[in-house]
Structure formats: C-alpha cells, structure tokens
Write a structure and sequence with these properties.
Blueprint (H helix, E strand, L loop, with lengths): L22 H15 L6 E5 L6 H14 L3 E6 L6 H17 L5 H18 L24 H18 L4 E6 L6 H16 L4 E7 L3 H8 L3 H4 E2 L8 H13 L7 H11 L2
Parallel strand pairs: 1-4, 1-5, 2-3, 3-4
The structure holds adenosine-5'-triphosphate and magnesium ion.
C-alpha cells in the first residue's frame, strides 16, 4: 500500500473516508434541529453506543450538517477532569460573538455576553478551571447567582433568545457525556428543559456510552421525556463492506471477498 494515497485513517474520532450507514440518524437530527429552529418542539438527542462503534465521527458529521443548514454549533468533549462550565463558556462566547454580528440579534447577543461575564464571575470560585475571555461587563442579577443550575439556565436562555432573533438555532454537540458529574449533567438537563418550555431554538446533540441513559434519569427524573436516546449499532454487513471497499475502489484497488468477510468479522461491523 502506498502510504501517501492510503485512503484509510483509522483511529478514535478520525473521520472515515466513507461514513457508511448513518443516514437515518442524520436525518432524525436534521429534522429535530429544523423543528426547533422554527419554534416547534423536538426532543434533544443523546446517542448511545459501545466503544468504537462510531459515535464521535457521527457527531462531527452531524455538526457539519447543522452548520451547512445555517445552525450555529459548538462542540465539546467531556473528559473526566474538566467541569462543564469550563468547557462550555469559551465555546458559548464564540457563538455569541458570531450572533452579535447578525444585526437583528446584536443587542441580545451582547446581553448574552454580559450574562456570560456574570456566569464566569459567579462560578469561578466553585469551578476553578473556568476561564473565558470577557467582552462585556456583567450585568448584576444576570446569570450570576453562583448556582450552576440557575445560572446555566439564565445563560442558555439568553443564547436562545439571540439565536431566535438571528433566525437560527444553536446546537450544543457534546461527546462523552457520561463523564459529566451528576450535578453538572442535572444542571444542563434543567437548562435545556427551560429552553424547551420557552420554545427557544437551542438544543443538544450528545453521544456517550450506553449507561448514559440511566445517568440522565438519575440526574433528572424527567430526562426520559426530554431526550431521545437512539442506539448506535454496529454497521450492517452491506454498510460495513461499503466503508471498507469504497475508499479503496476510489483508488482503483479491489478487495477479494474473503478479505472483506474477514475484516467485517474481526471488527464486528
Ligand atoms: N459509519 C462509519 N463508516 C466508516 N467508518 C466509521 C464509521 N463510524 C466509525 N468509523 C470509524 O471507526 C473508528 C471509530 O469511530 P469513533 O471514534 O467515532 O467511535 P466512538 O464510538 O466515538 O468510540 P469511543 O467510544 O471509543 O469514543 C474510526 O476510525 C472511524 O473513522
Ligand atoms: Mg468517541
């Protein structure tokens, strides 16, 4: 194999040359995002699947789909040692700065940036890893009471209001959600719930290991009603075959069928 033209790029989260077999889930997420953007309700999506099944690359593709459709997205990955506020704040800042360039959303986005300043100031004590550039002074009383659940709700509401005025939706793509601390996950769920109640165009598309569903229920009993939990299965044989055969085929290289069969069985799809 010529290492220069080798089309494969195996590895955790590296986008495959051919993203096989995920059209239904992509469509489901596309519909949910379009619905919330129009002010219709749609459940947030938390995809669950085993290690290596393809969650990260699918999440990234969905994010690209969403950006191409005009939604504003951010992406974070919850590692074991960072707090949710620390992960979210810099990304929300970028989204708010983008929104502030849309004339119809400018004032609300600037208010969102003030909320972010209050949020960071109030929560810095508890979450010492929280660092974010501040573009505006906080506004007393706006997302600054020091309680994560309340402040995150207030902040995301401001983001949602600005997104609505910009005629877009903000979508938070979060990988490895199962690593979020229970209280931080609960705060996120609660904030989303409030945004959904206000029909704001803000939603989450997340991914994690199968225990995620139980963790969500433990964090907030109503999580089952707020989220869909589609299961990411291994690829069906024809899809897995396509993922292997097509990138080589594009380089005019063919597999023999025994090799394909062996790859599918070794990787279990
Ligand atoms: N639909 C697909 N078509 C082709 N290749 C894929 C597909 N899904 C995943 N892969 C490939 O499989 C590998 C694992 O994918 P990925 O890292 O997204 O899995 P994951 O579920 O996020 O794993 P983990 O739970 O360890 O984070 C990557 O090399 C990726 O390119
Ligand atoms: Mg992953």
């Amino acid at each position: 194999m010529d290492p220069v033209t080798n089309p494969y790029s195996p590895g955790a989260g590296s986008p495959p040359p051919e993203l096989a077999g995920r059209d239904k889930l992509r469509e489901q997420v596309r519909i949910a995002i379009t619905r919330i953007r129009r002010g219709n309700s749609a459940k947030s999506v938390l995809m669950v699947g085993l290690r290596g099944v393809g969650k990260t690359v699918l999440l990234e593709r969905m994010r690209r789909d969403a950006e191409e459709s005009g939604a504003y997205t951010l992406r974070i990955e919850a590692p074991e040692n960072r707090s949710l506020p620390a992960l979210l704040a810099p990304q929300l800042r970028l989204v708010l700065l983008r929104l502030s360039r849309v004339e119809a959303a400018k004032n609300l986005a600037q208010r969102g940036l003030r909320a972010l300043a209050g949020f960071a100031k109030a929560l810095k004590v508890k979450y010492s890893d929280l660092e974010v550039g501040l573009d505006f002074e906080p506004e007393p009383g706006l997302a600054d009471n020091g309680n994560l659940e309340n402040d995150l709700t207030a902040l995301l509401k401001e983001v949602g209001l600005a997104a609505r005025n910009a005629d877009t939706a903000v979508v938070l793509f979060i990988d490895e959600i199962q690593y979020l601390d229970n209280d931080q996950f609960a705060a996120l769920i609660s904030a989303l719930h409030r945004c959904a109640q206000s029909k704001l165009p803000l939603t989450v598309v997340g991914a994690g290991l199968p225990q995620l569903r139980g963790l969500a229920g433990n964090a907030k009993s109503y999580a089952e009603r707020l989220f869909n939990f589609p299961i990411i299965e291994p690829l069906a044989p024809a899809e897995a075959e396509l993922a292997i055969v097509k990138p080589a085929g594009d380089e005019d290289v063919d597999y023999n069928p025994e090799a394909v069969a062996q790859i599918l069985s070794a990787t279990r799809g």
